[in-house]
Amino acid sequence: MHSSTVEALVRRDQFVWSFGPDMAPAISVEPGDAVRLETNDCFHGQVRSELDLPGTIDSSKVNAATGPIEVRGAMPGDTLVVELLEVNPGPRGAAMVTPGQGQLAHRGLQPTTRMFDVADGVVRMNERVSFPARPMVGVIGVATDGEIAPTLDAGRHGGNLDDNLHGPGASVLLPVRQPGAMLAIGDMHAAMGDGEVCGTGVEIAGDVLIRVGVLAGVQSTWPLAVLPDAWVTHGTAHEDLTAAVDAACDEAGRLLVDEWGFTVEDALIFL
Predict the structure, then answer these.
(1) CB 91 within 8 Å of CB 171
(2) What is the DSSP annotation of 75-114?
(3) Number of CB atoms found within 10 A of residue 249's CB
(4) Cα distance from N-terminal residue to C-terminal residue, the chain
(5) CA distances, 128 to each of 37, 78, 207 (Å)
(6) pLDDT at 72
(7) Mean pLDDT, contiguous 10-residue spans, the chain (271 residues)
(8) Cβ atoms < 10 Å from Cβ of 77
(9) Residue 68 to residues 153, 156, 244: CA-CA distances in angstroms?
(10) Which 8-state DSSP code applies to residue 41?
(11) What are the phi and psi torsion angles at 257 (to 5°)?
């Protein structure tokens, strides 16, 4: 990867609803280029006040991902490196409670929308409650081997990973499955917990500045985040937490063996 002063722009009206094998690029860039992406909020502008409740919005228009970005020279078997340089949320976000969803669904929830003001690094929920902004992107992914993966889903291509560590300073490594990788990013949150307990974070529009690079001939099975002091592995499995944890641990063990010369047994003990 080399440095570059180029900054391309992908507008928020250039987006996809799914990742697949035949994605047409919105723009093409070189490894080392910087790209700014304007992102839609996950509701695609449909939620403007607390009167816009679950059930009143078009659920087919959720989680648009800006792009795709073709990175010239990225080929299957390579790894795409996405440096998250800036994640800049807009001034107004929203969160929702949908009856029947979330970890407190058994409590008999009412449809609820809450609006949040975001300014000066603070998210304000109401007159009593505010907390630090921790902007991150929920959706980051590339073209798939063959399946069509809606942007609401996560998988080996990335997609809706909803990892709150995917903010400024992190690099996300994605396995390249198709020429050019075809990167798309969306679903920004001004803040999100360790998972979306109610089904959303503070959903918000904004812009993201990234730098792209390619590791030729090197590839993991699952997306990997690189932080200043840690690797963060990912694994997904539809409605199966144990299988997802197994996949993430397998990837972490492989990294320890390949990068640090651990035996498999020592890797398991370390983890």
Answers:
(1) no
(2) -TT-EEEEEEEEEEEEEEEEEEE-TT-STTGGGTPPPEEE
(3) 15
(4) 30
(5) 34, 49, 29
(6) 98
(7) 67 98 98 98 97 92 97 98 98 94 85 96 96 98 96 97 97 98 98 92 98 95 95 91 93 94 92 92
(8) 12
(9) 17, 17, 27
(10) -
(11) -70, -50
- 85 — alpha (psi -120 to 50), left (phi > 0) or beta? alpha
Alpha-carbon distances, residue 167 vs 106, 127, 210, 234 (angstroms): 32, 27, 11, 16
Is the pTM value of this prediction over 0.85? Answer: yes
Quote the longest CA-to-CA distance of the chain: 57
Cα(163)–Cα(156) distance, integer angstroms: 14
Report the pLDDT value the prediction gives residue 7, as an integer from 0 to 100: 82
Backbone angles phi, psi at 258, to 5 degrees: -75, -40
Q: Given this model, what pLDDT does residue 6 score?
A: 60
Whole-angstrom Cα distance, residue 62 to residue 17? 8
Question: Which stretch of DSSP H or E encloses residue 171?
Answer: strand 171-175
Taking the C-alpha atoms of 12, 60, 95 and 187 in order, what is their torsion angle to the nearest 10 degrees?
-40
Cα–Cα distance for residue pair 261/166, rounded to 1 Å: 27
pLDDT recorded at residue 5? 55
Place of tokens 């918000």: 204
